């Protein structure tokens, strides 16, 4: 079914419209969420997919088909919901790297982000990329290991050492091998 038709059905009969959207895009959303939450239970994945469609139900009026598609909108929603759930489940806060700076951010917060990002980037490749994937994008160790062709324990060890190096850089100390 075409996007325009789906949105028309959503406006006329939201319950029927959301069931059509789910039928057409559930597999895509499930795939995206499963990639991010591969370390967690099937139940968590399914709950996250449900959250995606609930968010879509509340936000579908914001879709501008001239700028994007329902597929794109759902893909972004799926990714964001999965990352948020991963962060909550993992009990980890991410490093505030280059997030969008809002007017409510103080100059001090902006400067702290820049200093932190510079310290992470000073690690060089592949360590900087591994830290960014792990803490900014929320990738699980298993996925990072696949990307770089490393063992999971090697990735964990690189992360541990990299964080120690970042700490040393931020404290103004030398960045020797830890």
From TrEMBL:
Superkingdom of origin organism: Bacteria
RNA polymerase sigma-70 region domain location: 23-89
Keyword Protein transport attributed: no
Keywords from the named record: DNA-binding, Sigma factor, Transcription, Transcription regulation
GO MF, any single term: DNA binding
Pfam families named among the record's database cross-references: Sigma70_r2, Sigma70_r4_2
Keyword Transcription regulation: yes
GO biological process: DNA-templated transcription initiation
RNA polymerase sigma factor 70 region 4 type domain boundaries: 115-165
NCBIfam families named in the record: sigma70-ECF (TIGR02937)
Entry's family note: Belongs to the sigma-70 factor family. ECF subfamily.
Protein name: RNA polymerase sigma-70 factor, ECF subfamily
Species annotation: Anaerotignum lactatifermentans DSM 14214
